[in-house]
Specification:
444 residues, alpha+beta, MetI-like fold, 2 domains, five-stranded antiparallel sheet, four-stranded mixed sheet, 14 helices, 9 strands, 10% strand, elongated
Length: 444
C-alpha cells in the first residue's frame, strides 16, 4: 500500500508582500507625514523643553529648573493652576451631563433633528466669535448685556425700582438722615400747618412727571404737605419754599411716626401734595429708603468672583452640542430589548435611565469626558476675550499665562516654555489613557 502524499509546505509571503508593496515604498509614502509631525509636534516640544532651562535672554544663561520654580511660586501662575483645576472638574462634567440629557431628550421629543441642530449650532462658531458674543452677553449695563437685562427684568417684576434714586434733603432743611437710607423730620407736624419736604440731588429733566409743584392747602381736619424738587431752573427762588418752575415729586411714600410706630401713611400726588389724617398730628414725617434706593443694576458677571464661572458657561454653551452628538451616537447602539424588559419588570423611567442607560453608555461618556478634559486644559481664546483687563488675572489659566509670560509684556520665554512643558505633562495622562483604551477595544 502506497504511503499518503505529504503536501508541500506553502511559502509565506514576506511582510512587504502582505502589505502589497515593499517596505521602502511604505516609508516613502509615510515620509511627508513624518516630516510634518516632526516639524509641527516633535520639534516644538523639544525646543520648549530646552528653552525652559534658560533665562529671559534666550540661551545665554542656563538656569536649570529655576523657571519651573518660578511657575510654582508666582501668584499669577498659581491662580492659573487653581482655575485650571476648576475648569477640568466643572466644565467637562457639566458639559457631558448636559450632552447626556439632550441626547436622551432627542429620543422623546418631536422635531428631534431641529433640536439637535439648534444645540449643535454653537460648534460652528469659532472661539473668537463666541468670546465676542459672550463679552456682550455679560456686559454689566442692562441696556447692552442680555444676561443683566433678564436679571433686572425679573428683579423689577417682584421689587419695583425706586423712582428717585439719589435724591436727598437739603443740608439746612428739617429732613435729616435717620438710618438705612431713610429721612425723617426733626420737628413734628400739626393740623392746619402744611409740611414742607423739599429734596435735591436730582436733575430736573430726570423727574418723570414734569408737573409743577403746588403748595399744600391748610386743612382743619388733616395734616397736609408737599414733596418737591427744591431747584428752580436758572437759579433763584427761596430754599424750602415751593417756587414757580420747581417740579413735583409724585409717588413718594410718607410715613407719620410716633414713638417708633407708624401711625399713618400717604403717597404724594402728581402735584407733590399729600394728606394725612388728623391722627398724624404730633408725629414726625419719614420718607422711607425705598423712595431713594438706586435702581438694581444686575449682576457683575465679569467681576472677580464670577468671571471664571461665567466663562465656563460660555464654554458649555459651545461644547454641549459636541457631547450630545457623541452620546446620541452611542445611545443608538443600546439594545432596546433591555430597556423594554426593565419597563416590563416595573422599573420607572428614572430607574431605567440610571441603572441601564447610563451604565451601557459608560464607555462613550468616558470618551467625552477625557476629550473635553484635554480640551479645557488648553483653553485660551474665551478667557482672553471675555475677561476684561481688570479681572483677567482672576480668570487666568495656564494657556493664557503662557502667552502673557512669553509675549504679553512679560517677555520671559523661559517661564513661558516651562508652563508649556507643564501643560504637556498635564495632558499626557489623558492621552495615554485614551491610547490604552483604544488598544484594549481593538483587541476585542
Amino acid at each position: 500500500m502506497a504511503a499518503p502524499a505529504v503536501p508541500a509546505p506553502v511559502a509565506r509571503p514576506s511582510r512587504g508582500r502582505v502589505l502589497g508593496t515593499r517596505p521602502w515604498a511604505a516609508v516613502v509614502f509615510l515620509l511627508p507625514a513624518l516630516v510634518l509631525l516632526g516639524a509641527l509636534v516633535l520639534y516644538p516640544i523639544l525646543w520648549s523643553l530646552v528653552r525652559s532651562l534658560y533665562g529671559i535672554d534666550d540661551f545665554k544663561h542656563f538656569v536649570g529648573l529655576g523657571n519651573y520654580g518660578d511657575v510654582f511660586t508666582t501668584d499669577a501662575t498659581l491662580t492659573a493652576l487653581k482655575n485650571n483645576v476648576i475648569w477640568v472638574v466643572v466644565a467637562p462634567t457639566v458639559t457631558t451631563a448636559l450632552g447626556l440629557i439632550f441626547a436622551v431628550l432627542t429620543e422623546r421629543i418631536r422635531w428631534a433633528t431641529a433640536f439637535k441642530l439648534v444645540i449643535f449650532m454653537p460648534m460652528a462658531i469659532s472661539m473668537l466669535a463666541a468670546g465676542i458674543i459672550f463679552r456682550l452677553v455679560y456686559d454689566h449695563s442692562p441696556d447692552k448685556g442680555v444676561a443683566n437685562a433678564v436679571v433686572v427684568g425679573v428683579h423689577d417684576t417682584f421689587a419695583k425700582a425706586s423712582a428717585y434714586p439719589g435724591a436727598r434733603p437739603r443740608a439746612d432743611g428739617d429732613l435729616k438722615a435717620s438710618g438705612g437710607g431713610s429721612f425723617t423730620t426733626t420737628g413734628t407736624v400739626a393740623v392746619g400747618t402744611p409740611a414742607a419736604l423739599p429734596l435735591v440731588g436730582l436733575p430736573p429733566a430726570s423727574v418723570a412727571s414734569q408737573v409743577p409743584a403746588s403748595a399744600a392747602t391748610p386743612a382743619g381736619d388733616a395734616v397736609t404737605g408737599t414733596v418737591w424738587l427744591d431747584f428752580a431752573p436758572g437759579g433763584g427762588g427761596k430754599p424750602g419754599r415751593v417756587d414757580p418752575g420747581e417740579k413735583a415729586l409724585s409717588g413718594i411714600r410718607i410715613e407719620a411716626v410716633k414713638d417708633g410706630r407708624v401711625v399713618a401713611k400717604a403717597t404724594s400726588a402728581k402735584d407733590g401734595t399729600f394728606t394725612l389724617p388728623a391722627s398724624a398730628a404730633g408725629a414726625r414725617l419719614r420718607l422711607p429708603a425705598a423712595n431713594f434706593t438706586a435702581q438694581y443694576a444686575g449682576i457683575d458677571w465679569l467681576g472677580p468672583s464670577l468671571v471664571t464661572p461665567a466663562i465656563i458657561g460660555a464654554y458649555i454653551w459651545m461644547w454641549a452640542g459636541f457631547a450630545m452628538v457623541l452620546i446620541a451616537a452611542g445611545l443608538t447602539a443600546v439594545p432596546r430589548e433591555l430597556l423594554e424588559a426593565a419597563r416590563v419588570d416595573g422599573a420607572n423611567e428614572w430607574q431605567v435611565f440610571r441603572r441601564i442607560t447610563v451604565p451601557l453608555l459608560a464607555p462613550v461618556l468616558i470618551v467625552v469626558l477625557v476629550t473635553l478634559a484635554i480640551n479645557v486644559l488648553k483653553v485660551f481664546d474665551l478667557v482672553y476675550i471675555i475677561a476684561p483687563g481688570s479681572t483677567q488675572q482672576d480668570a487666568n489659566v495656564l494657556a493664557l499665562q503662557l502667552y502673557l509670560s512669553s509675549f504679553g509684556g512679560g517677555g520671559n520665554q523661559g517661564v513661558g516654555s516651562a508652563i508649556g512643558v507643564l501643560l504637556l505633562l498635564l495632558v499626557l495622562p489623558a492621552m495615554l489613557f485614551n491610547i490604552r483604551r483604544f488598544r484594549r477595544e481593538n483587541r476585542r
